[in-house]
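One such given next:

>
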Amino acid sequence: MSGTSADSASLLSVRDLRRRWKPTKERLVKATRNGESHPLPIRLHRAFSWLAAVETLADSEQLDQRLIFRWIALNSLYGRWDGKIDEPTRDAESLRRFLSTIIRLDHDGLLAASLQTHKPLAMSILEDEYVNDYFWRMVREDRQFRPGRTRRLAEEWYREANWTKLLDELLDRVYLVRCQLIHGAATYDSKMNRETVRRCGLMLRIVMQSILIVMIDQGLTTDWGELCYPPISQSNSPAFPSARPSRPK
């Protein structure tokens, strides 16, 4: 499969992922008084809802919406509440903690396999100076940017199988594009960034599939952090009094 091809039909649909999750979800319901008291189903439910919304987009060129919706789905999984400051943890911190956990749980090497299979796509994103925050700092400081350094580092991460660093850097680039779109730093459907948005959206889809499978298969007893803005019951008490999942028996 080409690393720069359009969204591949070989990738799982939301329906496929929900089917994979269903047995574990049913096990969870049986192991607890109320399966919905566990935060993982809500995280997955929220993520699935946004990924399903991507699948309803009739126009395959709706690249901005696809990337934004996929990032929201990812944010549903990594976002966590900081009780000390009584607000969500900063994105960078919560995402890095999340990715570290995913890599640790990925016993089957799904993310590593995906990054290897789609290396041309990953390299095209890492080598794109316009999604490199360091490039923009150089521009503001009127200094010369040296693009070759990124390729050397990326090749080193691949050789050393440093998947944590590689994934962190890739999602940093996707996050920059996400911020440009969300914060009005890009024109809607701009002709200047179509290829960049397309690549980042596809990379996000590929990575999200592996992440979701890891969470479905390995993440049941993992503490993913306190859920942000949990559903509120009719008695006005949070539906999730504790972020720590009980261990199914």
Observations:
- The longest strand covers residues 81-82.
- Residues 14-28+38-218 form one domain.
